[in-house]
Structure formats: C-alpha cells, structure tokens
Amino acid sequence: MKGKVKKEYQILLPKLFGEKIIGRTISDKPDKITGRKFSVYARNIDPNIRKYYYKFNFKIIKIEENKAITSLAGYEVSRSFISKSVKEFSTRIDGYVIGKTKDDIEVILKPFVVTAKNVKSSIASNIRKKIEEYLKSYISDNNLETIIKRILNDDLQRDVKKILNIIYPISVIEIRKIQIKI
C-alpha cells in the first residue's frame, strides 16, 4: 500500500513580526493546513524582546507556493508573570472589553491592573469602569496593527496608567489577553 506524498511548508509570521519563518509543517494537501492554529513564545520570535512573558497565537490563513501565511489570532501573558505582579496587600482588578477596530476587526481585550495597596470595592469598580471606557474608545479609533504595536511598546499601558493614577496609585497594568476574531 502506497502512502500519500506529503509536502513541507514553511510557516511565515505576519507582517507585524517581519514575516520571519517560524517553523515548518507537513501535509499532503495545502487546504488541510489552512485554519491550523499554533502558539509561539515571544522569545522564539525575537530574542531581544522585553515582553518575554507573551505567548502569541497565530492562525494559518492561506498557502502561497510552499509558504503558509499566518495571521495573529491573539496573545496571552504567562500566569507566572501575573502571579509575580500581584503582591500582598494589593488588589488585582480584571477587565473585559469588546470592540471593533477602524479596519473592522472585532477584538477582545482583557486588561489587569494591580493597585499599590488594597482598595475598597467601590474604588476597584471605578477603576474597572474607567479602563473599559478608555479601551473601548481607543479600539474604535485605531487599527489592529497600531493597537498591537502600542501594547508591545508599553505606550498604551502608560497612557492608561496616567488616567488611572488619578483615581488611585497603580503599580502594574498589562493587557493580559487579546483575542482577535479572524
């Protein structure tokens, strides 16, 4: 009995990450590869990246010649980073924001904030409300690539921290997870 002839395909990262070859996959038909999802830690993409605790999720969207073209499906922050960030006598506040970008892509952002000290629930809900308002308007005013770049450069987190520090001193703010509807 003969086996199927399989071909090797190089997996390319999206334009945002410099279209580097991140790996290889094998299949007998190109349409079997389309739709596959995989995860890569930030250190595997770029060894010099500061956000080593990010785990990026990609989805193969099409095949061109022997190359599998991917799209960013989201990312998440490692649990160890989150647990290191939350100290004793501080409060962790999680948020959940759904919005559409300027380029009409639905995005779910899940930020987390750690206050400098314990806070009352009223202050925590005020912080959560403020961050959700800001992120909703930010998502609708920008395209996906800009949002991702600003998160990776910590620009978005710095802007949000300035706003939230008016309510209560914040020690850590991070977008712990992004889901992109492809």
Structure description:
This protein folds into 2 domains: 7-73, no CATH class; 79-180, Band 7 domain (Tetrahydropterin Synthase, Chain A, 2-Layer Sandwich), CATH 3.30.479. Strands 1, 2, 3, 4, 5, 6, 7, 8 and 9 form a 9-stranded mixed beta sheet that branches. The chain contains 6 helices and 9 strands; from the N terminus they run ββαβαββαβββαααβ. The chain is α+β, with helices and mostly antiparallel strands.
Cα(first) to Cα(last) distance is 40 Å
Mean pLDDT comes to: 92
- Structural class estimated from helices and strands: alpha+beta
How many domains comprise the coordinates? 2
- Describe the sheet with the most strands: 9 strands, mixed
Poorly predicted runs of 5 or more residues: none
Number of strands: 9
The name CATH uses for the topology of the largest domain is Tetrahydropterin Synthase, Chain A
Morphology call: elongated
CATH class term of the largest domain: Alpha Beta
Radius of gyration, in angstroms, nearest whole number: 19 Å
**CATH fourth-tier homologous superfamily of the largest domain:** Band 7 domain
Strand content: 35-45%
Name given to the CATH architecture of the largest domain: 2-Layer Sandwich
Helix coverage percent = 25-40%
Please work out how many helical segments DSSP would assign: 6
- What is the helix/strand order? EEHEHEEHEEEHHHE
